[in-house]
Write a structure and sequence with these properties.
Elements: E1 20-29, E2 32-42, E3 47-51, H1 58-65, E4 73-78, E5 81-82, H2 88-98, E6 99-103, H3 114-124, H4 129-142, H5 158-170, E7 176-180, H6 188-205, E8 208-212, H7 216-219, E9 224-229, E10 232-238
Parallel strand pairs: 3-8, 3-9, 6-7, 7-8
Antiparallel strand pairs: 1-2, 1-4, 4-5, 9-10
Helix pairs in contact: 3-4, 3-5, 5-6
Length: 241
């Protein structure tokens, strides 16, 4: 696998502080508040599960931590560096270089093959096509999909497509993986396979994971759970080892 290389402009990040920290985040969509002073910290290498009822604000919290949404108030820090006050171009570059994403529906590009989908973050980051495809094939092999690299998303099962999405989220060796209901559209067996692969891959590399889920079986893979209610982080729960 490709060795991690520091992203340009991030040499000042301090690895001794929490990898991700949010302080007093508030965000409303029109007149509807989604976050009401949410705070959370995630240690480097920690797998944190964010749980809560539908509409509680857990996905909004994840999107703020990842720099997709900008809170109306509060702060978001990556290893000690504030990121919510960065411009859109800077946050976009940060997402490409430091973050990986896995969403419920996979969100594969239907016109691309599986290996091209996996290679996409590398290509967007400036990697040449040949080494990007080679790295993508290595990740597909790790996901047990080495014979499906030439297929498009419509030719894959739900579990296969989600493993492709997982490989895409990990291929650029991100510091943080944000996973929003990554098993929500899968049956229990396929969901377990995806979680086993995710946990195995991030443990190998010490990657930090923020995982939104409504499924207690998925949350059980985490080091710790936080419960979001009414836009606030209401409870922190240690997961039994």
């Amino acid at each position: 696998m490709r060795a991690r290389t520091p992203a340009a402009g991030t040499d000042d990040l301090d690895p001794t502080v929490p990898m991700v920290r949010a302080r007093d985040l508030s965000l409303s969509f029109g007149a509807t508040p989604a976050l009401r002073g949410a705070s959370v910290a995630v240690a480097a290498g920690e797998l944190l599960a964010v749980m809560g009822p539908s509409g509680s604000g857990k996905s909004t919290l994840l999107h703020c931590l990842a720099g997709i949404l900008v809170p109306d108030a509060g702060e978001v820090h990556l290893a000690g560096r504030r990121i919510d006050d960065l411009g859109e171009d800077e946050r976009s570059a940060l997402r490409r270089r430091r973050f990986g994403f896995v969403f419920q529906s996979g969100q594969l590009v239907p016109e691309l093959t599986a290996e091209e989908n996996v290679a996409l973050p590398l290509l967007l980051g400036g990697t040449k096509r040949a080494p990007a495809i080679a790295e993508a094939r290595a990740w597909l092999e790790r996901m047990g999909l080495d014979d499906l690299g030439g297929r498009r998303s419509g030719e894959l099962s739900g579990g296969q497509a989600q493993r492709v999405a997982l490989a895409r989220g990990l291929v650029a060796t991100p510091d943080v993986v944000f996973a929003d209901e990554p098993t929500g559209s899968l049956d229990s067996l396929a969901g377990e396979q995806v979680m086993e692969l995710l946990v195995g891959a991030v443990r190998d590399r010490g990657t930090t994971v923020v995982l939104v889920t409504h499924d207690a079986r998925v949350a059980a893979y985490a080091d710790r759970e936080v419960i979001v209610r009414d836009g606030r982080v209401a409870t922190t729960v240690a997961v039994p080892g």
